[in-house]
Amino acid sequence: MRFSRISRTVGVLAAAALALSACAGNTGTTPTSAAAGKQGGNATVVEVNAFNTFNTNTADGNTDINSKISYATHSGFYYIDNKLNVVHNDKFGKMEKTSDNPLTVKYTINEGVKWSDGTPVTSADLLLQWAAFSGYYDNADSAAKTGTSYFSYAGDPTGLALTDFPTLGDDNRTMTVKYSKPFADWEIVLGGPGIDIPAHVLAKKAGLSDAKAFVDLLKSLPRGDSKAPKPADSKLQAMAEFWNTGFDTKTLPADPSLYLSNGPFIVKSINQDQSLTMVRNKDYNWGPAASLDEITVRYIGAAPAQVQALKNGEADIIAPQASADTLEQLKALQSQGVTVDQGNQLAYDHIDLNFSGPLAGKSVREAFMKTIPRADIVDKIVKKLDPQAKPLDSQLLVPAQPAYADSAKNNGSSKYATVDIGGAKTLLAGATPEIKIMYNKDNPNRVDAYSLIRESATKAGFKIVDGGLGASDWGKALGKGGYDATIFGWTNPGVGVSGVPQIFKSGNGSNFNKFSDPEADKLMEQLIVTTDRSKQDDFIKQIDKKIWDSAYGLPLFQSVGVDAYSDRITGVKYMPNQTGVWWNFWEWAEK
Fold this sequence. Notes:
Blueprint: E1 4-6, H1 14-17, E2 42-47, H2 64-73, E3 78-80, E4 86-88, E5 93-100, E6 103-109, H3 123-134, E7 167-168, E8 174-178, H4 199-205, H5 211-220, H6 234-245, E9 265-271, E10 275-280, E11 294-299, H7 303-311, E12 317-318, H8 324-331, E13 339-353, H9 362-371, H10 374-381, H11 404-410, H12 421-428, E14 434-438, H13 444-459, E15 463-466, H14 474-477, E16 485-491, H15 499-504, H16 518-528, H17 533-549, E17 553-565, E18 569-570, E19 589-590
Parallel strand pairs: 2-11, 2-12, 14-15, 14-16
Antiparallel strand pairs: 1-16, 3-4, 5-6, 6-8, 7-8, 9-10, 10-11, 12-17, 13-16, 13-17, 18-19
Helix pairs in contact: 3-5, 4-5, 9-12, 10-13, 11-17, 16-17
């Protein structure tokens, strides 16, 4: 599991969830099936972001809406419930730790689990996930600018990099992974919540005959070595390039193999930047059974328009980028049978600064950070939703966590407690840097944050350029250059610690501003092999300080999440993590 980017920020800090690792390894109850209610029927859900890929594992595709569609259309060995328990799906298969020393994990896919084209889900599909997530074949040396990085994985490969090539069973349904060290996130690193890219499809797209040829190719290739890089393997490179971009689309592909399902629903149609419709997979019986026959997802960025859609019966479930006005409008609908859920979720808003261009110098980054009116942003966006809301003073923790106060006291965040235009001018020494800020221009809260930052930074002499992009474009622009700073949010699954290196370790796909600190990298490598929670907190506090010392950017606030749904649909339950109300979509039913 990894952080997902969000245009809508859902409630409790995302970086905070970095440290919410106690649930990993805490197995919940057996998956529930559809809630009591009418079988069949349909529901319409409104989301802020627009869908743009069937591969949510890539650094470009890792947004909340893509992850939610993938969650509904794919299945795996586990999911996360709304108590942040890891719930094993034994109908899909069995994931078992067979040894602690060395840490060994065996995956067995049950017979009968299949893709929507009828092809069985096999160990080849799991091996593809391992290959893409582990960086096993990479031999790139970023300093020397030599070698090859194959798969553009959004998460952190450090944990799976502790493994050798997996052992595959003769039955094509089992795979065993052995680690050289303990790994805190072993239970959530592979096989879930869904196995979403079919190996047999990727093999053919890369010019191989079938999944067996794909497995044989991977077996034949050595582990990559950045100290002695070899020329890129053309077949693996073709496969990785298709994995990276071949499933990207804003419309329904003409080739059905590009959107295969092995989960409860199958995508039926997509209206670009407007909506997506899924229908129930009638063959699916290897996990919680869905009640609804059809779910339509509409993309509406503006909260008032979402509320109006709910009021008019054009939507059943909405998840707006809420304001105090939004909440009041929703509460007014409660007399019409609307339920409103509000609470902190595992998400946070932040502004990140590139370590290049006009912000390459640390003093310029510090000057810019001194102009950011965090208190005004909190007052404008979240204060009326949460009267206790304050600017967030940690990149990795939230106030409810025991380690937060100590980390905030010692990490250097106090330097940016208030706006200091005079201090910024002193650091700039008469310079007037031009800073282009990228954000989702279809998200009203991001527009407000941008406007307040622009107004304040201008006073210190910065020239601010509007780099706002549309709802389906901003995510792909991250890390590609063309801007100097960006405002967005991270949301977290609520389990595991691998989200820390995912975002902050040198060279990782989700490290969009190219932050690099060798000492912080070493701390992160220690963090992921540490299973003791108190020791994890010690590492997290040290990493937090390293990030602040670098003038990385600023966390803005821990978000407040608001979901609302009509009484036409039952089974909707609040969820604090990146999956939101989708966590139990199979329980949704018409009343």
